[in-house]
Specification:
With about 260 residues, the chain is an alpha/beta fold. The protein is built from eleven helices and ten strands.
């Protein structure tokens, strides 16, 4: 219920020191990607015969963990599908995925459908409260070109001090992305560091690095929950994040995060 979630948020605010360093995942946290990355997964799978794959299938696999890399997830889904092309190579899957995501010839890429989830006001206020050298972006299995493209398109690139992407090292749930971001920021791990993500891998990565994890429900999952008369944090991904140790799972846009970063610190 909303009351229960309010209690979780209160405990997250009072049982730990105030947040001072903010680490943000990209897809599903900053960027609404159901029509881009998620749709590229489906299109790629279907092209290679894995027609049983749906948005719900993708959500279920991501809830299990170990599925942050959408190229590998697409390949694994094709191999798992009874009708999937077992002869397709990983490289072919990557090329096909990129064809849909980046665009092909005169056909525009699905990345153009991405939108910003939080408001600019929320992002600027979090930046102000964190101060210098305290915000990192895209702790994500996403390459730097796509990351920078989205942030520049939405006028967010000047709000962050560093970026950790897929080419930098092991992906989540390995703690490397968190620890590398903190190294670049000149900060130490601790409960004053809050990582915001939308998958259990994000949560596990933060906790393994000795930091706190806050989950955020994605817009498409919240839309489904509302249609079913349920709370925003009842989908399989949200439940998996809680079970993995997230302090709380917030609504899309994470405005409540401001309560964890006092304005007067």
């Amino acid at each position: 219920s909303t009351w229960v979630n309010t209690i979780y948020l209160y405990l997250a605010m009072t049982n730990f020191p105030p947040g001072k360093v903010l680490l943000l995942d990209m897809d599903g946290v900053l960027a609404e990607v159901s029509k881009s990355y998620r749709a590229s997964i489906l299109a790629t799978c279907h092209e290679y015969g894995a027609t049983s794959v749906t948005f719900e299938t993708v959500a279920q696999w991501k809830a299990r963990g170990g599925c942050n890399n959408d190229w590998k997830l697409s390949y694994d889904l094709i191999q798992n599908d009874p009708n999937g092309d077992k002869d397709v190579t990983y490289e072919q899957v990557v090329d096909t995925f990129e064809k849909y995501y980046q665009g092909d010839g005169d056909k525009p890429g699905l990345y153009e459908l991405e939108t910003l989830i939080p408001t600019h006001e929320t992002m600027k206020e979090l930046r102000r409260r964190c101060g210098k050298n305290a915000m990192a972006k895209s702790l994500e299995d996403l390459d730097r070109i796509d990351c920078d493209k989205f942030l520049k398109l939405h006028n967010l690139d000047d709000l962050f001090d560093c970026c950790v992407c897929m080419e930098d090292g092991p992906p989540k749930p390995d703690p490397f992305p968190i620890l590398r971001a903190l190294e670049l920021l000149g900060q130490n791990p601790g409960k004053h560091v809050i990582m915001v993500g939308d998958t259990p891998d994000d949560v596990r990565s933060a906790i393994s690095a000795g930091c706190r994890a806050v989950g955020v429900a994605t817009p498409e999952n919240v839309e489904k929950a509302i249609a079913q008369g349920k709370e925003h944090d009842t989908c399989s991904l949200s439940m998996a994040m809680k079970e993995s140790g997230a302090d709380v799972v917030m609504k899309p846009g994470f405005e409540d995060l401001l309560d964890m970063f006092p304005a007067n610190q």
